[in-house]
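Blinded run. Sample ID left blank on purpose so nobody reads anything into the name before looking at the predicted structure. Input follows.
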Amino acid sequence: MKKELLRKAGIGFSIGCFGDIGAQLVQSHHGVRKEWDCRRTVLWGSAVAALQVPLFHVWFKFLEGKNLGTGATGGLVKTLLESLTVGPLYLILINLWSTFVIKRGSPAEALTNLTERFPTSIKAAWCVVAPVQLISHTFLPVQYKLLFLNVVSALWNIILSEMLCREETCEEKKT
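Blinded prediction complete.
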């Protein structure tokens, strides 16, 4: 179990770093970012490894042990449960990580960022992640879920990193 979680954390770190590099490339392309921020990339990868991987590892194990139906019905139930419980929890945690660790913000800034960004990030998650989870929970055998979700996670991390780290780069552009 420990070895499996460490392996997944290593993959998650890589995917998180890839996602942040992608987000910084998008910001650079739009003239918002002047140079690559290595610290931000490592911290974003660390957030994925430390928050996303353990949370969803436990969640998927929990779901596999429950009889919530099969086929499209079971997939829909699992997706709804995830979209209303673990998904929002993860977005809150990653938003706080973004404010406290990456931006070195205060609790007041964290609360402001959370209240301003959570509605946008949860809507994006419901548009991007929920359909992916529905496909995963409905059609994929357990052994292929991680590979499928890792590919989607790489793209999702580009979106999420760009959304949550946007303000920092906009301030850089103003100076």
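Unblinding after everyone has recorded impressions. The helical segments are 2-29, 38-64, 71-84, 86-102, 107-139, 142-174.
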